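Re: weekly structure request thread

Next one in the queue (258 aa):
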Amino acid sequence: MPYSDLLFSINAGVATITINRPDRLNAFTGETVDEIADALKQSDENPEVGVIVLTGAGERAFCVGGDIDWEIDGGLEGLDWELGKHIVSCRKPVIARVDGYAIGGGNHLAYFCDFTIATTTSVFGQNGPRVGSPAGGYVVSYLAGVIGHKRAREMWMLCRKYSAAQALEWGLVNAVVSRDQLDAEVAQWCSEVLALSPTCLATIKQSFLQIMQPAFEHNVSDTLQSVAPDYFRRGEQDEALQAFKEKRQPDFSHWRNA
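Done, posted below.
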């Protein structure tokens, strides 16, 4: 099917899904999320595909999370982030090809992929508490299994940015190469995957999925409902988004005891 926010191709067993919004640093909207989910499904069901590469157009960003204008218009309300489930449930290995910023939802996408290959200039991090974008459930907890609880809490709760070298040291990425070597490196990983038994790879992915199933019972909406069911009406997100647009520090003092 044609996509408005993606480029999608299949070549020699490799399905490549490219978020094609470089003018917005590949930030996503609800439509982008739906299209990625569909492309993953199409790739998983296509017998010609043995491995999937997820990437972003241009050299500035892999993905910087939700489009701020879409979030201001209420895009996050009622949205449950299911892409992580789609990636780990997919029977075929998924490789994140990261060049540039992988922030917020972009970082989620990268760390849910089976492998992450990044350039030396790539930057990783979370941004939710800074811009009032609520996250919860398995989207957050899964990171603890990747880099450990202490580091996951630091990344999520302090909204710091991390270099590709730091991400490699922490185990957030598998390999870091120069930009001119990125495509060759990704191609090598794809070649190694395609040389292996697809059924065995599928059973391995299913085995990793089994230990995650309990976490899947808790999503963003459920977590937010238990903490602050009136979140989208209390003004806290409005302050965060307005501060982001005005390039100032948000003032959250009013909501600390709310």
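The chain has one domain: 6-180+192-215. Strands lie at 6-11, 14-19, 51-56, 61-63, 94-98, 101-103, 115-119, 123-125, 161-163, 175-177.
Next request, please.
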